[in-house]
Structure formats: structure tokens, C-alpha cells
Design a protein that fits this description.
The chain is α/β, with parallel strands linked by helices. Helices cover 16% and strands 39% of the residues. The longest helix has 14 residues, at 217-230.
Length: 256
């Protein structure tokens, strides 16, 4: 099957890239909430957040952590922010023992965290006929932001792979949301096998759709290939990213 090209794509959906001034900010934890057994939410505050800007729901800020080996950085999605209140919300998945998860387990009200960015944003106009969002737990903050921002009654389907069904989240949305929660501790198969099987079982909707994928890099590549090659979806109407790379700490790869 030949893939659609840019010239084949109807120019009726605006997808815009923005660049932002990069600033480093020192934030203080003002609230800590256990969302699920493996997800913690922190509200952080600083006067420096009065002009913080995150225009895309899958933006990333750099978080800076001190470790015995030296300072390290990790990419995180701003889950929510409020310029008037000078607050930023970040969600931490606790499925590993890296510097971010270790900081989250120990952090309390009053703890300090340094962030930088975001460097830029990809802004997708909410005028598609439907949305399909696919991710593991690392993509949940982005999915939550998009669900909360979508217009009333637009169909959106999510496929999310979690460590356990206990980690499923209730997210308020005006959209017509159909969630599919998959759990690693139920059934068999690796991440790619589980997500691809669930994706193949979906009936592809009519009309123009936007597809968003975030998972381990190899898994994201396999899902992207299915959407492009087997479904014949326009590459300009999708975004896929490797939010982590198996065996390589802190890796993040945008696939297109």
C-alpha cells in the first residue's frame, strides 16, 4: 500500500508548531495526591509561573534531579497550570526506581524541584471528526489534558496500557469518551502485542481523525506502522513518540 503524502492531505486541519523562550524555574511542592497505586500528582508553586506557557497538551518540561552520579534531566508533561495562581501540576508514574520516581516517593509539601521549558508546543486545532489516543502510563498526563480540552460530544477513544487495572483514572471530559484500559498483570503478551491486538480490534471511524501515540519507542514505532500502513491514515494527522526506550534511562524520541 502506498502511503498518503503531504500533497494528498486536505488542508482543512491546522497543526501549528510554536517555540517558547526557555527558562529555568525553581518550584515548591504545595500539594501531594495519590491518584492510583502507581501514580502520584504534585502541585507546585512559584511566582516565576506567572508567565509559564504550555500551549500543547503533549508538551514537555525538563525536570532536574541531583543523583550520586551527578545531575540528570527527565522529560515530563505539564498536566495543568494556572498563571493567576502561579501553580503547575505534574504526575509521576511509580513503575520504576529512576531519579524521578525516587524523588516523587520522598517528596512532601515544601520539597523543591527545578524545571526548564517547555521548548516548544505542537498545537492541534480541535476540529477533527474523531480522536484516537494510545499510550502506556507515561502518556496518561497528555491524554488527560486532551480529554479535558476537547469540545463537547466529539468522539474520542483511548487505548491505555497500565501495570494494573487499579491504575485506571477517572478524567472529566465533555467529549464522547470510550476508554479501553489494558493491564500488564492480566493476560499475556508484551506491550506491543497487547496494544496492537487492541488497536486491530477497533472499528476505524468515518471522517477525519487525529491519532496520538506515546509508549516505549519500539512499541510506538510498531503502532505507528500499523496506523500508516494497515489503516492508510494520513501521517500529518497523527503524532507518535517514544516516551521511553527500553534499557536506556531518560530517552525520548519523536517519531512523527
Amino acid at each position: 500500500m502506498s502511503l498518503p503524502t503531504l500533497n494528498d492531505t486536505p488542508a482543512r486541519h491546522r497543526i501549528e508548531r510554536l517555540r517558547h523562550e526557555i527558562r529555568r524555574r525553581e518550584l515548591t511542592v504545595t500539594a501531594r495526591e495519590q491518584l492510583s497505586p502507581r501514580m502520584l500528582r504534585f502541585t507546585l508553586s512559584s511566582p516565576d509561573l506567572h508567565d509559564f506557557l504550555s500551549a500543547g497538551v503533549d508538551d514537555h518540561v525538563k525536570l532536574f534531579f541531583d543523583t550520586p552520579e551527578g545531575p540528570v534531566m527527565r522529560d515530563f508533561t505539564p498536566r495543568a497550570y494556572d498563571n493567576a495562581a502561579c501553580t503547575l501540576v505534574l504526575d509521576f508514574a511509580l513503575h520504576d526506581h529512576g531519579p524521578a520516581a525516587d524523588w516523587a516517593r520522598k517528596a512532601q509539601v515544601g520539597s523543591v524541584l527545578s524545571i526548564g521549558g517547555p521548548r516548544g508546543s505542537l498545537v492541534v486545532t480541535d476540529d477533527f471528526d474523531w480522536y484516537l489516543l494510545i499510550a502506556d502510563s507515561t502518556g496518561l498526563p497528555s491524554i488527560g489534558r486532551r480529554l479535558e480540552s476537547l469540545r463537547e460530544s466529539v468522539p474520542v477513544t483511548t487505548l491505555v496500557l497500565l501495570d494494573s487495572a487499579d491504575d485506571a483514572q477517572a478524567i472529566a471530559t465533555r467529549a464522547d469518551w470510550t476508554p479501553h484500559w489494558l493491564a500488564r498483570d492480566a493476560g499475556e503478551g508484551d506491550d506491543a502485542t497487547r496494544l496492537l491486538a487492541a488497536l486491530r480490534a477497533l472499528e476505524w471511524p468515518q471522517g477525519d481523525g487525529y491519532v496520538w501515540i506515546a509508549a516505549e519507542a519500539g512499541v510506538a514505532k510498531a503502532l505507528r506502522a500499523h496506523v500508516l500502513e494497515e489503516r492508510g491514515h494520513y501521517p500529518q494527522w497523527m503524532r507518535a513518540a517514544g516516551y521511553w526506550l527500553k534499557g536506556e534511562a531518560g530517552a525520548h524520541e519523536t517519531l512523527g
